[in-house]
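Revision sheet: structure tokens.
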Amino acid sequence: MSNTEITSLLQNTVTTTDLAATLSYLENLQADIFKIKTDGSPSPISSDEVASAITELKSRPVITLQIASLLSPRGLSQVATYLQQTITKPVVINQEIDCRLIGGAKILWQGRILDKSLYQRLKTS
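Predicted:
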């Protein structure tokens, strides 16, 4: 991961199906950079920059997006843009698949649920 990639990561909404795996990847990257530095090889990125990225990701609000199937990149981008505008800062979107929803989505954040699923619409009709 280059400086540009980390900068991009921190400026944009992060989407992941497993936030723990993303953080683990960054922590392993930080360990690898440390190994490179101890053997004298040049590193394209500093360990401090990776540590900063980890801290930044951990501080972001995590929004759980429950959907019937994974969204296309375009669909996910639209959801991310909406959420980022609503919350006014970059967020981490944690996707969860729940095929019972049929379509639409549920958004869970800070103990609140916004249920825009087809299942909910059919249930209340």
